[in-house]
Specification:
Layout (H helix, E strand, L loop, with lengths): L9 E6 L5 H9 L17 E7 L3 E7 L7 H14 L5 E7 L5 H12 L4 E6 L8 H10 L4 E3 L8 H11 L20 E5 L13 H12 L3 E5 L1 H11 L5 E4 L4 H7 L6 E3 H9 L2 H8 L10 E5 L11 H14 L4 E5 L14 E4 L7 H14 L3 E3 H8 L3 H5 L5
Parallel strand pairs: 1-3, 1-4, 4-5, 5-6, 7-8, 7-9, 9-10, 11-12, 11-13, 13-14
Antiparallel strand pairs: 2-3
Length: about 400
C-alpha cells in the first residue's frame, strides 16, 4: 500500500473476517472496489480508495484484513492492519452478529492510545438486528457511537455518513490558518522565496503557496520576492512589513537584512506550528546544544523522492549539525511512513520533515512513541533556525 502520499483525511475500516468490511466499503463508495467473498480472509493487504463524502470532501478509505486472522500469514496481515491505525484520522469498527469481544476491545484500546476518533457499525443488521444486550456490553466498554447498517440493502447509509461527519475531526479535512491571529486586515507580509535546485521547476513548494493564500484569506497584502531582491525592495520603498517569512535555508542570509524590530519566521516553522506538535518541537530543538559524540539522530522524511547531493534531510541537515556541534554524530533516515526498526530510545534526537505530503494526524502518530518515551523531537525548519542562531526570533510570532 502506498503510504504518505495523500493528505486527504484517511478513514480506516476494521473488524473481524467475514463481517462485511469490503461490502461495507463498496456500499459506502457505491463502487465495487473491494473484493467480496463468503470466504473469510479474502482481504489481505490494506487497500486504499479515494471517495467524496458529502460534508467532508475528498477522503481516503482503507480496507484492512480481518483482525482475527490466523496462522503465520494471518499474523503478518494483522500486523499490517495495526500499522494502518497510525495512518488514519478516523476509524470505523465493523461488528456483526451481535459479536463484541476481545478483538474489538483490543482495536479500541489502540484507537484510544493514538487518539483516533472512531465509531462502531453493526453490519448485516438485515440478517441479525442489533440487540439491546449487545449495546449494553458495548456501553460498558466505550461511549462510542453505534450505528446499524446493512451492506446488502444499503439500510441507513445516510446515518453512516452523518455519524462519520460527527466523528471525524474538522482538522482532518479543513485546512487551519497558517497566520490567523498573527496578521490582521491590511497588514503587509513579505514572503521571501529562494529558487534553488531543490525547488520544483515552474512551481513553488506547498508551504509557500499556502502562505500566499493564507495572507489573502486574512485580508492582508502579499509581497513576494527572491532573497536577492529583498534588501533592495525595502530600501527603495521604505515599506516596513508586519511579518517576514522566508525559506529556512535562507535564514542566515535573510536574518542579516531584515531589521530586528520586524518579526521574521520561516515557511516551515509556520507550517510546523499548524501541523505538528509545536511545543514538543521547540523543546526538542534545544537538545541540539547538548548533543555529544556518538549520538544517533533519526531523520524522518514523510515522502519518497529522488535523492540529490542537495537533499536537505539526507545531506544538508546532517552536515550542518556536524559543523555546528563539532561532534561525531550518527544519522539514520527513514523515508515515507515506513517502520522505524530500531528502538526509539536509541536516538538522542528525531528530526521530522515538514510533512506536506501526509496528514496532520499521521505526523502526530509518527512521533507519538518518541514523545511518550521522552525522546526529543524537532522539525527541519526549527533545526535550521537553531543552527543559524535565529531560533528565538523564528518561533516568537507563534508563542502566545
Amino acid at each position: 500500500m502506498s503510504k504518505g502520499r495523500d493528505n486527504k483525511p484517511h478513514i480506516g475500516i476494521f473488524g473481524r473476517r467475514n463481517f462485511g468490511k469490503s461490502s461495507f466499503i463498496n456500499a459506502l463508495t457505491k463502487l465495487d472496489i473491494a473484493i467480496v467473498s463468503e470466504i473469510a480472509g479474502t482481504t489481505t493487504d490494506p487497500v486504499k480508495k479515494s471517495m467524496e463524502i458529502f460534508g467532508i470532501g475528498p477522503a481516503i478509505i482503507i480496507d484492512t484484513a480481518g483482525i482475527d486472522d490466523s496462522g503465520e500469514l494471518g499474523e503478518k496481515r494483522i500486523a499490517k492492519t495495526l500499522e494502518v491505525i497510525k495512518l488514519i484520522d478516523c476509524a470505523i469498527l465493523l461488528i456483526a452478529n451481535n459479536i463484541f469481544g476481545d478483538y474489538e476491545k483490543m482495536l479500541i484500546q489502540k484507537f484510544i492510545k493514538l487518539d483516533i476518533p472512531y465509531l462502531i457499525v453493526h453490519n448485516k443488521t438485515d440478517i441479525e438486528p442489533l440487540l439491546n444486550s449487545t449495546i449494553k456490553t458495548i456501553d460498558q466498554f466505550t461511549n462510542a457511537m453505534v450505528v446499524e447498517f446493512s451492506s446488502r440493502t444499503k439500510l441507513n447509509i445516510e446515518g453512516i455518513i452523518e455519524a462519520l461527519k460527527n466523528t471525524i475531526p474538522e482538522t482532518a479535512y479543513k485546512n487551519p490558518s497558517l497566520l490567523k491571529g498573527i496578521i490582521e486586515r491590511g497588514d503587509i507580509v513579505m514572503l521571501i522565496t529562494p529558487v534553488d535546485s531543490e525547488a520544483p521547476e515552474g512551481r513553488m513548494i506547498l508551504p509557500q503557496v499556502m502562505a500566499i493564500r493564507d495572507v489573502l484569506d486574512n485580508n492582508a497584502i502579499n509581497i513576494v520576492v527572491k532573497e536577492t531582491e529583498a534588501e533592495l525592495f525595502l530600501k527603495k520603498t521604505g515599506i516596513k512589513p508586519k511579518l517576514v517569512i522566508t525559506d529556512s535555508q535562507a535564514f542566515g542570509f535573510v536574518n542579516k537584512i531584515i531589521p530586528p524590530e520586524i518579526p521574521l519566521t520561516g515557511f516551515s516553522v509556520a507550517y510546523a506550528n499548524m501541523r505538528g506538535p509545536f511545543h514538543e518541537y521547540i523543546n526538542g530543538t534545544l537538545k541540539i546544544a547538548t548533543l555529544k559524540d556518538g549520538d544517533k539522530i533519526l531523520i524522518l522524511e514523510s515522502c519518497t523522492h529522488q535523492v540529490s547531493c542537495e537533499d536537505i534531510g539526507r545531506y544538508k541537515i546532517p552536515r550542518w549539525l556536524k559543523e555546528f556541534t563539532k561532534k561525531k554524530l550518527e544519522f539514520e533516515t527513514v523515508a515515507g511512513l515506513n517502520e522505524i526498526k530500531n528502538p526509539i530510545t536509541d536516538y538522542a534526537l528525531i528530526i521530522q520533515c515538514g510533512g506536506c505530503m501526509i496528514t496532520r494526524k499521521q505526523i502526530f502518530s509518527r512521533l507519538a512513541d518518541a514523545i511518550e518515551a521522552g525522546v526529543p523531537v524537532s522539525n527541519y525548519g526549527l533545526t535550521i533556525a537553531y543552527i543559524n542562531g535565529i531560533f528565538d526570533r523564528a518561533v516568537a510570532p507563534f508563542i502566545k
